[in-house]
Amino acid sequence: MDRPVLVRLRFDFRLADNPALSAAVATGRPVLPFYCLDEESPGLRRLGGASRWWLHHSLARLAEDFERCGARLLLLRGRDADVVPDLIRRTGATEIHWNRRYDASGISVDRALKAHLEETGVTVKSHNGSLLYEPWEVTTKAGDPMKVFTPFWRAARAVRPVPMPLPAPSRIAGFALDGLDGLGLADLDLLPTTPDWAGGLREAWTPGETGARARLTKFLESGLAGYAELRNRPDLDNTSGLSPHLRFGEVSPRTVWHAAEQSVRAGAGRASDRDLEILQAELGWREFGYHLLFHNPDLAVANYNRRFDAFPWRCDEPALRAWERGRTGYPIVDAGMRQLWTTGWMHNRVRMIVASFLVKHLLLDWRAGEEWFWDTLTDADPASNPASWQWVAGSGADAAPYFRIFNPVIQGEKFDPEGDYVRRWVPELARLPAKLIHKPWTASPERLAQFGLKLGGAYPRPIVEHEGARDRALAAFQSLKGAA
Question: What structural domains does the chain harbor?
Fold first, then answer.
């Protein structure tokens, strides 16, 4: 019996443009792809609830895709340091491929495992399966990590052109799993049961490579045109919706990059060069997040700008709960938080608004928001999530100044001008006219009663007053400057 080549899969759940899989198939030997749910190795962050739901369905689709090509996906659970050597012993494999990860704990696990396997004569080959550029490829002229996005992105683009994506293998010589014990998908215990809160996720998403490809095609046909301006409108369908698929590696950034370029060059969907430039810059922001994570391993728990270690964050559990549940009394904030809870996703402009509200209006630590997003987002990404939270808080790289405080009313009126986004997610306000829907407290009780609304009842009054909260935040920032 031929010894198999192992392919260790981790958030690269696709057949197309999967360098580890392509390299294994190219050997001409039987291929055994496997996924190990490792929640035991030191330092690895346990997935949040929404991500676990997505992982279940992504693995189910991946198993089907492999079977159509002639291979079977093996599911395992436990510490990588124990599971992988045991699998090699049981199969007689002498070669294993995986795509790299960039968090410090993941790197540490992989480095130790690679050293152990190579000592036993196993060939270990790692690949870049998730980024356009490796974090160490982009540096300042002095060879240091980059700290500001614009020069980072300029330097990245100068490294080399983005490689073309690899084709999916049409056939894979699978390895017979007879006698090789694996787990059933249900054994991974990834789905919510009591209660099953995932109904909105099931309605909104189709995890898997086929779902990713369909969403990309739809976006290129009807969403890329006007993307440069309309991506900021949560009431319109002009975002790609690809972030969960990118997070789980169901589509690669190289595939998105080149598919968008080809679409614009062909004149499909009437998208402009500017639309393409902004989309590619959004992929660049994702790259920048991984650059920051690689060079700052504690990005999710420590201020990038250590000056913020002295910031006077408040402790206010009721305010945090109101924010989490979408009951702050600010309609655009509440709409975003309810969209998140229902669908496991939130429009990017609204993410900035709700994050600003948490850290600046409520003066609550950005880490509390990052943790909530980690648990509730289907696209909870170990780099983009903390990098973006720190950017909004003012503590991050190339951060928005702390004194830039979004007015949630103005933000709502500007980016949801007719109130359609709020009406969808805050049905208590659905009857309000556009001129009131982002600031219902400005109307008299009698006026609100005409629309069936009483503040403090079905919908709350604002939990903070904007001007007072703004002044409080600016005073806190001034105290920080004094401490520095």
Answer: 5-129 (3.40.50.620), 131-162+210-295 (1.25.40.80), 306-483 (1.10.579.10)
